[in-house]
Amino acid sequence: MRVGLVGAGPWAMNTHAPALAVHPGVDFAGVWARNPDAAQAIGARVFGSYAELVDSVDAVAFAVPPSVQAELALFAAMRGKHLIMEKPVAATLKDAARLATVVRDRGVRSVVFFTRRFAPETRQFLDEVADGEWSSGDAVWLSGALLGGAYSGSQWRQVGGALDDVDRTS
Questions:
Q1: CB-based contact 63:52 (threshold 8 Å)
Q2: Which of 61, 99, 136, 144 is the most buried (most CB within 10 A)?
């Protein structure tokens, strides 16, 4: 499957691009980003426009802020492209619902990545609790999202804070 990457920030550089480049079922077609110099640093083909990337692939992987991901994903889904998205998928519930409708109506596939979602221990836990009857729950979440490092300078994270790392669509 030919997959193109949208975005060239630290998450694209350190996570998406390396994974796409080595996955045996993926032909990493290249990248498009608002900043062509940053896209060039990924080391893959750089597309001159987003439309050109979309027209050249079967699926699009996104490493962009939620404020732009939904609209870009909508464009790709309307052209029959599968979507590999980040969380949150949109900045508003309305945008997320619109995207979900187009994905369903066009018959494309989509996945939202949660870093540990497919880890064996996570899958085991979800299988164990799938048939349980729940009346309440309790969770503790610790995050270092704003402590520094390559991802802390992200503009959308500065605006939305660490909760944007969980998922909010309201």
A1: no
A2: 61
